[in-house]
Design goal:
11 helices
C-alpha cells in the first residue's frame, strides 16, 4: 500500500510549503499550472485507453455508470459533504490567509473533491490493489503536491488535514481491490483500464475548461466495467 501513503505525504508537504511561501506564486502561474494538470490527465487517459480490449463493455459500463451516478446525484452529495467538512475545519482551524468566508468554503470544497474523490484517486488504489503497481497514485501524489501548494497559498495550510480522509478512502478501495484479484482476467483488467482512461480524458477536458464532464457521476462505471467485460467475453463476444 505504497501509493496511498506517498499521496498523503505529498498533500501534507505541499500544504506546508504553500502556507509558508505560496503567496509568491502569481495568479498567472497558478492558472497555467492547472492547464498543465489538464494536459497530463488527458495524456494518462490516452495511455490507458490504448490498453483496452473490447469497446462495447466499456461503453455500456460508462453509460450505466453515468446513469447511476446522476440518479444518485453523486456529485451534489460529495459537494454537500465537502461543505460540511469546510464548516468543521473553519471552526477549528481558522482560514490562515485573509480570505472571505464564502471564498474559503468554495475553495476548500473544491480541493476536498480533488484530493479525496477524484477519478485518479479512485482508479489509483484500485489499480495498485489489483496489480501491485502504485504508478497512478505516484502521479497523483505529484499533482496533489503542487495543487496543495496553490490552494494553501489561498486558504492556508489547513488543507493538509485532508490527507487523513484521503488516506482512509484510498486504503479502503485498495483493500477491496485486493480481495477480487483472483477473479480478474487480463481482458477484464484491460477494459477497466480503458474505462478509467475515458474518465481521465473527461477530467482533463474539465480542468482545461473545455467540457463540464460529470466526472464524479461517471465513477460508478469503474465498478461495473469488469463484470460487464466478463459477461461480454463469456456470452456475447464473437
Amino acid at each position: 500500500m505504497v501509493g496511498p501513503v506517498i499521496n498523503s505525504v505529498g498533500i501534507v508537504a505541499g500544504a506546508a510549503l504553500g502556507s509558508i511561501g505560496g503567496q509568491m506564486l502569481s495568479a498567472e502561474f497558478r492558472q497555467k499550472i492547472n492547464y498543465v494538470f489538464g494536459c497530463i490527465a488527458m495524456g494518462i487517459g490516452v495511455f490507458m485507453i490504448a490498453k483496452g480490449h473490447s469497446l462495447p463493455p466499456v461503453i455500456i459500463a460508462l453509460l450505466f455508470g453515468a446513469l447511476i451516478g446522476e440518479a444518485c446525484r453523486i456529485e451534489s452529495l460529495v459537494m454537500r459533504l465537502a461543505l460540511r467538512a469546510v464548516d468543521l475545519f473553519r471552526r477549528e482551524k481558522g482560514t490562515g490567509p485573509d480570505i472571505s468566508g464564502q471564498a474559503f468554503r468554495d475553495q476548500f470544497a473544491v480541493v476536498t473533491v480533488l484530493f479525496c474523490v477524484s477519478s485518479l484517486g479512485v482508479m489509483g488504489p484500485m489499480h495498485e490493489g489489483i496489480t501491485r503497481d502504485p504508478s497512478l497514485l505516484l502521479i497523483k501524489a505529484l499533482l496533489d503536491f503542487f495543487t496543495a501548494i496553490v490552494f494553501a497559498a489561498n486558504i492556508g495550510g489547513v488543507i493538509g488535514a485532508l490527507a487523513l480522509p484521503q488516506f482512509a478512502l484510498q486504503s479502503f478501495i485498495f483493500c477491496m481491490a485486493t480481495t477480487v484479484v483472483p477473479l480478474i482476467s487480463p481482458t477484464m483488467f484491460a477494459d477497466f483500464s480503458a474505462c478509467g482512461g475515458i474518465i481521465m480524458l473527461g477530467t482533463g477536458l474539465r480542468q482545461l475548461g473545455l467540457v463540464q464532464a460529470p466526472i464524479l457521476g461517471m465513477l460508478p462505471a469503474l465498478f461495473l466495467v469488469m463484470p460487464i467485460s466478463h459477461a461480454w467475453s463469456a456470452y456475447l463476444a464473437p
